[in-house]
Amino acid sequence: MLSLSNVHLSTAVLLKPIFLHGLSGFLHLLLLVAVVLSWVWRKFTAGPGDESKKKPNNSLFKTTVFSSLALSAFNFLLCFINYFYWYTSGWSEEKLVTLLDLALKTLAWGVVCVCLQKAFFSSGQRRFSFFFSAWFTFYLSVSCYCIVVDIVVMSGRRVSLPTQYLVSDAVSTCVGFFFCYVGYFVKNEVHVDNDIQEPLLNADSLESKETKGGDTVTPFSNAGILSILTFSWVGPLIAVGNKKTLDLEDVPQLDSRDSVIGAFPTFREKVEADCGGINSVTTLKLVKSLIISAWKEILITAFLVLLKTLASYVGPYLIDGFVQYLGGQRLYENQGYFLVSAFFFAKLVECLTRRHWFFRLQQVGLRIRALLVTMIYNKALTLSCQSKQGHTSGEIINFMTVDAERVGVFSWYMHDLWMVVLQVTLALLILYKNLGLASIAAFVATVIIMLANVPLGSLQEKFQKKLMESKDTRMKATSEILRNMRILKLQGWEMKFLLKITELRKNEQGIPLESGKILSALATFRTLQEPIYNLPDTISMIAQTKVSLDRIVSFLRLDDLRSDVVEKLPWGSSDTAIEVVDGNFSWDLSSPSPTLQNINLKVFHGMRVAVCGTVGSGKSTLLSCVLGEVPKISGILKVCGTKAYVAQSSWIQSGKIEDNILFGECMDRERYEKVLEACSLKKDLEILSFGDQTIIGERGINLSGGQKQRIQIARALYQDADIYLFDDPFSAVDAHTGSHLFKECLLGLLCSKTVVYVTHQVEFLPAADLILVMKDGKITQCGKYTDLLNSGADFMELVGAHKKALSTLDSLDGAAVSNEISVLEQDVNLSGAHGFKEKKDSKDEQNGKTDDKSEPQGQLVQEEEREKGKVGFSVYWKCITTAYGGALVPFILLAQILFQALQIGSNYWMVWATPISEDVQPPVEGTTLIAVYVGLAIGSSFCILARAILLVTAGYKTATILFNKMHFCIFRAPMSFFDSTPSGRILNRASTDQSALDTDIPYQIASFAFILIQLLGIIAVMSQAAWQVFVVFIPVIAISVLYQQYYIPSARELSRLVGVCKAPIIQHFAETISGTTTIRSFDQQSRFQETNMKLTDGYSRPMFNIAGAVEWLCFRLDMLSSITFAFSLIFLISIPQGFIDPGLAGLAVTYGLNLNIVQGWMIWNLCNMENKIISVERILQYTCIPCEPSLVVDDNRPDPSWPSYGEVDIQDLKVRYAPHLPLVLRGLTCKFRGGLKTGIVGRTGSGKSTLIQTLFRIVEPTAGQVMIDSINISSIGLHDLRSRLSIIPQDPTMFEGTVRNNLDPLEEYTDEEIWEALDKCQLGDEVRKKEGKLDSKVTENGENWSMGQRQLVCLGRVLLKKSKVLVLDEATASVDTATDNLIQQILRQHFSDSTVITIAHRITSVLDSDMVLLLSQGIAAGLIEEYDTPTRLLENKSSSFAQLVAEYTMRSNSSFEKSDDH
């Protein structure tokens, strides 16, 4: 029995807390001793070579450090609370051992934190040394033992167990498991800070050890625990920003976890694994994948939110005790100091957790945004053409700029829903402690208000959906208008299209006005203060985010380009390059008739295949089939080898000419030079100031059509592919250059390659091994040139049209022509001394600004300008006073001041009217107390309502006025502005900056004003109780302002960098969307995806550092205000009892609890406001663009019938594109007689297009004048001029909409007149076939019409307009000879009494003109070389025109057969 009782006794001892805490204390003491001994040993035995620092670089490293520090703090907190708790209730042996254990734990875990930071425990490949791993095993065993004992004791109910024991043991067990896992299963990766380990990335590193911020990874990734806690890692960047204006290269690179390049592959794999492919993704699965991509940060922030919420309720919980203490009820000695310490410590925890919560969530938001942007971009690259037609580029850009941004911003609100529940629960518990059952009333009110938010939230979602759809429509229209601004100005349509944008904006703004009413209703509920204050915002944000996610998912679910259309064979596996068997293809699978039918084709390696046919016969579609772009209905399509493609309408990227040609390949100088030579680009590059380093404007805007096409061809040639597909690339170049390209490229460099080329020029057909004749989507004939001549009706029709065009030359003497040809052949063989001097087009003069190649300002497209330094007060003033001259501002401020006064008044009333304790008589009755309080509360609710309505009205008006101003200035800007400004910059202002002005900026400015008023209210209340606080408060405010001044230069420039870094993403995206076919044909998708990810990271870099910098500032401000608060509390407990009314002191403390939050918010709002106001600054930049001259000059309006005769008289005309550029036209004098046809010819760069632009006043004359029917065109309004002239431009343009509004956008003509015009231009039958007739749909850029059909629509426009002066600017370049003849016939028939001015590359287009004007080139460019009738010029055999004609005839008669020398 004795032994049994001994066993019982020993078991009882083992279960006692005193034994458990003793064991735990001993274990931690052992660790401390071991660390000290180990450190001493290392100090005495370490050699001088062992000093290279090894920093663990594993992703778990920071977590281990953070865990040990958190555990140390947790134990300190427990020790602190227990000490004060037991100090009052008496000591015991058990309590002393427990305190000792907690103290040893605090010390031991602090030491562990330092050792981990210094890599003291690292051991080779393992994370921890053997000793430390063993110690953890013991630690985990003891922790598990303790938790088991706790559970046994609790379940047995033998002993009452304090809660802190259970919590402490549970935390210890979790930490034990985590450290054991790290110690035994995680390998150690070390990053050695050693210069010898650094690779020499470039020669610069030898010259200088200094690296710019852009070359280094953010210090955040390697920062120590203290640096992370205090945000000191961002300090160096803020310091740099104080010394100089920050540039992008000063901003460090992102850590691999935050960089989209590092994070995206894993994310994509996760989505594909979850959904079985991007196409099957659902909103829920996408959300799940996004959460998993940032699960660590989300868990950490959830923990921080929990801590912050608990810490924020320590103050309210202790306030009652504090007021009782001041009233004289002292429970124990030093109770006051304990209360102050508890208040201060809770504030400290709250401050730290709040700052890290905000920062981590922004980090998550950035990562999510970047992942979504990359996903949307990658999807755009794989979209099928049919899917793409449903979404225009403007819409897709909106997914990226608006929707992805909004989902990223939602990260701020991620924890709000459960946090509100937690806050409300805690608040009600505190109320229950203080008020008892009365708190049920508060609970009921809270539930009612929370439920009231639900229907409002769903309404908000509905409005948000509408808003996003209308924003899409507006951005789509803006994007299209910017692309086609030149044609709008030439036609005088720009103000009509501005009206269209304004109407779309009105629709868009009708929606927020309704949601504004809802918001004002929500704002009324906000008077319930803190917890529920943010609920309407959260619900609104959830609604917006859901809409954005749904839109992104619906885009991601669209059909991709089918990979089974083309069977790709590896090179060398077959002697056939392209094979099609019974192929049926259709752009629209729902259409009953396929686009291409019964295609059978076999092309062997090394063959040259020509494709010809009339407009709309399916030539371009055949090439698209080979590329795999057209959906296959049936049949087999095999392609063997790599492909290179040259599109009909040139696609050029903005950037250097060299980069466009290399297109991702490495530079091989010899091959590069050969390609330039073959494409006749050398002369062009010599003229450009920067040669092949010249930066091309958006869509090659500063190059001529011919130059763009030749750069496209050079890009294809440089790729060295196996199969080359050319879609009529010779139409955009003049006759001579076309011959050279065909000879040097197709017959020269590509003589051994497989080439398929579409052409309208019959002269290029004889050189083909196989000719395909197409009609109505079928190959009607195929064979060699000579075979087809003898057999084919369709082919004879094409050749016949060509011969008919040449028949004008029949009158010429045959011998003379052959003599001329022989002379020319010699010239060509000698590399054409006369012919090869291709000079750049007039538009290039704009680009090659100066001869000095070193001057950077010579580039046409400059880097985006950004303001430097402080945002001027004028920007704020304009923003505040734009709406009603600022009349509403005083009323908004008055409503807020009244609200604040009523809030403080109601609190004062409660403090004054409520007795301090039960034995004191209340000064007023209960009913009076409640009645006054309710009255004050209703008053403050009305103030909030008035404030919300006034603010929404002012914000709405400001946004509308600035929107209209900016768009008016953009639409009235001269063409030179659009030539030098990428549309990405304009779209960025119209979408992102305008969005900020619509939804953020007015509320941001108001928020700052409101918080300032609130802060003044708090100061007023605190000064009532303890004015002495100002002794500390004033210096603290001064230090805060100094901090803010130190921080703001960096923050401001980082915000500007964000604006500047966004435009390249949008532009690259827009370019990619328009060039997907080309990118896919070269298999360059992965390179473009990488570029997009680099640009996205470039945008995220300043954003990440802004987040860090804001928290850096807020952390320091929070610390300062916590010190102020602690000082005021110490003052209150130090003064003699009865010196101050305890109720008033309690009110001061209540307000003081909010002091650091409000002060932090004020400074944060100030900084945020300055960052956001940059959007207004950027919009205002575009309200100051110089305008074109007046649209109408009222006192000099021409007669309605002007011009009645159509005589154009040009007198000594001199034109330059900018004051510092050379003259393009140098004193031109000539007269185009009324009713005559004049043809203008000349080599590229002779000034033909400039002359036409001057006629329409796209460019203003520098000297001289242009008279039309005796009126100087410079003296009348632009609209009066442009609306009386007609033009068919080189690039046929169609707008998204209907056939009707493409022919008649100003709505000036009847349906009968439109049908008549369509019939005249041979499109009537085509339109009648369509379902909607005149209302049938035209997609973006007229993509569902062929190039030739688009040109006929442009002809239809001029037939409707019936102007006296008609200009054709290379109008028939993209149509076949038969259609060209048709257009000429229509013009002869319907414009017989009009002045027709024709610029043409095809000589036949000008041969039947009444007069021919030949402009000289080279040094004398911009002068008239010859001006006479074609007959006279041809009679003079030495005339330049005769030489051009003979050259064209020679080319048409020669067969370009395969020559031996190639």
Automatic annotation (TrEMBL):
<feature type="transmembrane region" description="Helical">
    <location>
        <begin position="60"/>
        <end position="84"/>
    </location>
</feature>
<keyword id="KW-0067">ATP-binding</keyword>
<feature type="transmembrane region" description="Helical">
    <location>
        <begin position="298"/>
        <end position="315"/>
    </location>
</feature>
<feature type="transmembrane region" description="Helical">
    <location>
        <begin position="20"/>
        <end position="40"/>
    </location>
</feature>
<feature type="transmembrane region" description="Helical">
    <location>
        <begin position="96"/>
        <end position="116"/>
    </location>
</feature>
<feature type="region of interest" description="Disordered">
    <location>
        <begin position="835"/>
        <end position="865"/>
    </location>
</feature>
<feature type="transmembrane region" description="Helical">
    <location>
        <begin position="1119"/>
        <end position="1139"/>
    </location>
</feature>
<protein>
    <recommendedName>
        <fullName>ABC-type xenobiotic transporter</fullName>
        <ecNumber>7.6.2.2</ecNumber>
    </recommendedName>
</protein>
<feature type="compositionally biased region" description="Basic and acidic residues">
    <location>
        <begin position="835"/>
        <end position="855"/>
    </location>
</feature>
<dbReference type="GO" id="GO:0016887">
    <property type="term" value="F:ATP hydrolysis activity"/>
</dbReference>
<keyword id="KW-1133">Transmembrane helix</keyword>
<feature type="transmembrane region" description="Helical">
    <location>
        <begin position="438"/>
        <end position="459"/>
    </location>
</feature>
<keyword id="KW-1278">Translocase</keyword>
<feature type="transmembrane region" description="Helical">
    <location>
        <begin position="875"/>
        <end position="899"/>
    </location>
</feature>
<dbReference type="InterPro" id="IPR003439">
    <property type="entry name" value="ABC_transporter-like_ATP-bd"/>
</dbReference>
<keyword id="KW-0472">Membrane</keyword>
<feature type="domain" description="ABC transporter">
    <location>
        <begin position="578"/>
        <end position="801"/>
    </location>
</feature>
<dbReference type="Pfam" id="PF00664">
    <property type="entry name" value="ABC_membrane"/>
</dbReference>
<keyword id="KW-0813">Transport</keyword>
<dbReference type="GO" id="GO:0005524">
    <property type="term" value="F:ATP binding"/>
</dbReference>
<feature type="transmembrane region" description="Helical">
    <location>
        <begin position="1025"/>
        <end position="1043"/>
    </location>
</feature>
<keyword id="KW-0812">Transmembrane</keyword>
<dbReference type="GO" id="GO:0008559">
    <property type="term" value="F:ABC-type xenobiotic transporter activity"/>
</dbReference>
<feature type="transmembrane region" description="Helical">
    <location>
        <begin position="335"/>
        <end position="353"/>
    </location>
</feature>
<dbReference type="InterPro" id="IPR017871">
    <property type="entry name" value="ABC_transporter-like_CS"/>
</dbReference>
<dbReference type="InterPro" id="IPR003593">
    <property type="entry name" value="AAA+_ATPase"/>
</dbReference>
<dbReference type="InterPro" id="IPR044746">
    <property type="entry name" value="ABCC_6TM_D1"/>
</dbReference>
<feature type="transmembrane region" description="Helical">
    <location>
        <begin position="1001"/>
        <end position="1019"/>
    </location>
</feature>
<feature type="transmembrane region" description="Helical">
    <location>
        <begin position="165"/>
        <end position="186"/>
    </location>
</feature>
<comment type="similarity">
    <text>Belongs to the ABC transporter superfamily. ABCC family. Conjugate transporter (TC 3.A.1.208) subfamily.</text>
</comment>
<dbReference type="InterPro" id="IPR044726">
    <property type="entry name" value="ABCC_6TM_D2"/>
</dbReference>
<feature type="domain" description="ABC transmembrane type-1">
    <location>
        <begin position="891"/>
        <end position="1171"/>
    </location>
</feature>
<dbReference type="InterPro" id="IPR036640">
    <property type="entry name" value="ABC1_TM_sf"/>
</dbReference>
<feature type="transmembrane region" description="Helical">
    <location>
        <begin position="930"/>
        <end position="956"/>
    </location>
</feature>
<feature type="transmembrane region" description="Helical">
    <location>
        <begin position="128"/>
        <end position="153"/>
    </location>
</feature>
<dbReference type="GO" id="GO:0016020">
    <property type="term" value="C:membrane"/>
</dbReference>
<feature type="domain" description="ABC transporter">
    <location>
        <begin position="1208"/>
        <end position="1446"/>
    </location>
</feature>
<feature type="domain" description="ABC transmembrane type-1">
    <location>
        <begin position="299"/>
        <end position="508"/>
    </location>
</feature>
<dbReference type="InterPro" id="IPR050173">
    <property type="entry name" value="ABC_transporter_C-like"/>
</dbReference>
<keyword id="KW-0677">Repeat</keyword>
<dbReference type="InterPro" id="IPR011527">
    <property type="entry name" value="ABC1_TM_dom"/>
</dbReference>
<dbReference type="InterPro" id="IPR027417">
    <property type="entry name" value="P-loop_NTPase"/>
</dbReference>
